[in-house]
């Protein structure tokens, strides 16, 4: 895999500091795709580091123990019609590890789902869902909003003319077709450790003053939706692949991994991470995020940054490994 020099600094973002080559708000899709792409070269140590980082050592080790494959036979895919990251081995594609990446500022969407998902074990029975009694199975499919006789949560991409029955996207990802088994979905998030608070599924999960009550209360069973922080992901990767330990990684792989570390760390709000993880962060990145960002509209305000939109970014400094 080859990665251009100008993609090295914190990956792509809405704005780039040309002075320090840092994107303060890297686009999630580039983080997801670049991290997944690193697992497609068949490097066992790299695969182990990434999968262990995302899902945690216990979950990753358990999944690997269920097959005879080495880590070089595992890989991660990104996006598609499912969660952000899916890990699987070459011999057992049905043994999938699922993760949803919700970095700071990312919206916790409610996606199209089935009526059966609401009666699955992923939902606890502690709260009566009165609104669900009015929903018919036909509302799972796209239908005219004016003719809909049930007040139900809608897919965020619906319009006034059409709608679908929707649920928290992780509820949808937890469902296995033609099976009552629930697929565990790991959530990467930098705020609450409770998925009900992240997806705002009920009043108890929204304790903030002044917030309106949740219209369609449900309680996701948190045992199926473990939450890991960005710091835990970076620490997990670095525990297997510390930056200063010689590895078989190519220069491009090292540069890509460093860019991912920087992008995730900055977007997460620069949380405290291990020394091994810190070794993947450039000094220029630490310097840049420590300098106050002046109002970019005030041309008279002195700034140590040179912020440009990605399309206007023209830095050419070679990356340092």
Commentary on this structure:
The protein is α+β, with helices and mostly antiparallel strands. It is 25% helix and 13% strand. The chain has 9 helices and 12 strands. It has helices at residues 28-37, 44-55, 57-65, 169-174, 195-198, 230-240, 251-267, 275-278, 283-290, and strands at 15-17, 22-23, 74-78, 85-89, 97-102, 110-112, 143-144, 162-163, 166-168, 185-189, 227-228, 307-309. The strands form 4 sheets. Strands 3-4-5-10-11 form a 5-stranded mixed beta sheet. Strands 2-1-12 form a 3-stranded antiparallel beta sheet. It is globular, with a radius of gyration of 22 Å. The model is unreliable at 317-321 (pLDDT under 50).
Order of helices and strands: EEHHHEEEEEEEHEHEHHHHE
| SS element count, helices | 9
Distance between the termini: 16 Å
| Mean pLDDT value | 85
Quickly give the structural class. Answer: alpha+beta
Radius of gyration based on Cα positions: 22 Å
The coarse silhouette is: globular
> Quick one: biggest sheet?
5 strands, mixed
Kindly state the number of beta strands.
Answer: 12
Q: Give the spatial strand order of the biggest sheet.
A: 3-4-5-10-11
Indicate the percent of residues in helices.
25-40%
Percent of residues in beta strands: 5-15%
Low-confidence stretches: 317-321
